[in-house]
Amino acid sequence: MRIEDKLFKVKFKADAHEFCHLKIKDQAVCLKCEFKPCTTFCPAAVYKWEGNKITVGYENCLECGSCRIACPYFNIEWEFPRGGFGVQYSKG
Amino acid sequence: MPEEKFDCIIVGAGPAGSSAGYTLAKAGLSVIILERGEYPGAKNVMGGILYSHSMNEIIPGFYKEAPLERPITEQRALLLTDDSGIHLGYKTKKFAQEPYNSFSVSRANFDSWFAKKVDEAGGMVIPKTVVSDVIKEGNKIVGIKTGQGETLYADCVLACDGVNSLLAQKAGLHKEWEPSDVALAVKEVLTLPREKIEDRFNLEGSEGCAIEFMGTISKGMVGIGFLYTNKESLSLGIGCLLSDYQKSLIKPYDLIEEVKSHPVIRRLIEGAKTEEYLAHLIPEGGFYRLPEVAASGMLVCGDAALLVNSIHREGSNLAMKSGVLAAETVIEAKKRNDFSLNTLSLYKKKLQESFVMQDLKKYRRLPQLLHKRKEFFSRYPQLASEIAYELIRVDGQVKSLKEKEIIKKIFETNSALGWGKVAFDLWRATR
Q1: Which residue in B5, B80, B91, B237 has the most C-beta neighbors within 10 A?
Q2: What is the pTM of this model?
Q3: Measured between alpha carbons, how far is B375 from B214 in angstroms, rounded to an integer?
Q4: Considering all CA atoms of chain B, what is the largest pairwise distance in Å, rounded to the nearest integer?
Q5: Helix axes B355-362, B316-336, angle to 10 degrees
């Protein structure tokens, strides 16, 4: 089962104001980051290396907090989505 | 949002927050719980086993009305290599009787129910509300700010906001966790008809089975997997240290796929459909990494305080106990009309006297041992599997020769002194 199919099973409530709760502080830092582990450990594949920058698919964020803690350069600004928005687990 | 000042503001309607809220409301204190999810439980994840004891102290006989899945009567531990498994299990009907030992649960259902009980007891539960910061007057925490910019005041704030406790960080109680302090767990809820579950897991009626597994399945990362039976679904997942994920560059969603296709697992879940995919961090740092949990006007409970006994896979019961102890402390502080650190430090004393801190202290050296000895997740399970294979295989070889070969294998893996050190480390880490 591909990650896209897994994420398809998760209910997300999109922020009405498209507030992005994950931000790369400085893309230049990602350029020099050798292994870019955010692109592998993120369980929702939110971070992708495309061209020469990291893209952030925050809409699929499962809000685990891993990227905030494990970005080797602490280059990710992590906030909670606004109240009531974001992932909505109902089975687990 | 109400304007008046509360006795206590609780951030987060999980097991810690609702336990504290219920205890405070029952004691007649004014309490409000702010929950960032659309409903309590929407953001909350665990493997899926709730131990009854702490909950039963809060609401005696809770299992008669709470939404629970199955009482767990069988516990199995598996040591898995890529193509084999060593099984150890314990089953007893005693766990099918009141007050029960543990239940599989869906947190979305359970946490909603628990929050409703807080409401019925007189507490206020407000969902869809993110708390963005604390309000300080000098050194004292006197309230909170919401994401919408509203302010709310109380004598005491309880940070029950889970492993991503930004609030305690903002209050200056601790810095960011290290990647080795937490495990990243991914989980799938897989639906399967009731009869199939009961047949495949050898269950009578509503009974449930909890399986935990480790071995080379985590690919050398410090990790543990689980497979729990719910009424009409299974919870399957695996958690590995975030620091190991950071280095291994393994993708968690690929790893769970490998778990699903493991020869010991795949028949158990065959035909089951993925209903939900979840991810969460689990505190694993243990005793030596525990943060400060008390400040003037603030206490920290549950995962937010890293209160997880990782070796026994206990977390929600520690959260509940810490929530109750924090509530008792607030009740005492209210009597004394003193919410300074001096009085609130009573919480730390209560934690130390309870199983929460005593258990964490007992296993204080374990996290370091596992960081040091990755062989527990690579070479040692492989060796155990090779030994089991030789012992069980009948091939005409005389047994005394077989034994010699096995002993040779054991000491090829590690010298006698080396094994002695492993045994000593293990003994020290668990005594």
Answers
A1: B237
A2: 0.96
A3: 12
A4: 83
A5: 130
3 state SS of B398? coil
Do A89 and B44 make contact, defined as CB atoms within 8 angstroms?
A: yes
Q: Which residue of B has its CA nearest to A40?
A: B251
CB interface of B with A, residues 122-141, below 8 Å: 127-130
Look at residue B1 in the predicted model and tell me its pLDDT: 53
Each residue's pLDDT tens digit, A26-74: 999 999 999 999 999 999 999 999 989 999 999 999 999 999 999 999 9
**How does pLDDT run across B16-52, given as a tens digit for each residue?**
999 999 999 999 999 999 999 999 999 999 999 999 9
CA atoms within 13 A on the CB side of A8: 7
Return the bridge partners of B136, or none: B141
Tokens found for residue B348: 């730390």
Give residue for tokens 């809770």: B62
CA distance B280 to B163: 9
Give the pLDDT score at B185: 98
Asked if A43 and B252 come within 8 Å (Cβ–Cβ), the reply is yes
Residue of B nearest to A13 (CA): B38
B189 contact residues in A (CB cutoff 8 A): 91-92
Residues of chain B positioned with their CB less than 8 A from the CB of A15:
none
- A92:B243 CB<8 A: no
- Cβ distance B177 to A69 less than 8 Å, yes or no, reads yes
B81-120 as b/e, with b when 16 or more CB fall inside 10 Å? beebbbeeeebeeebbeeebbbbbbbbbbbbbbbbebbbe
Does the ipTM exceed 0.95?
A: yes
Q: Which position has the token pair 């030789």?
A: B390
pLDDT digits (tens, 9 = 90+) for B131-189: 999 999 999 999 999 999 999 999 999 999 999 999 999 999 999 999 999 999 999 99
Q: How far is CA B151 from the centre of its chain?
A: 32
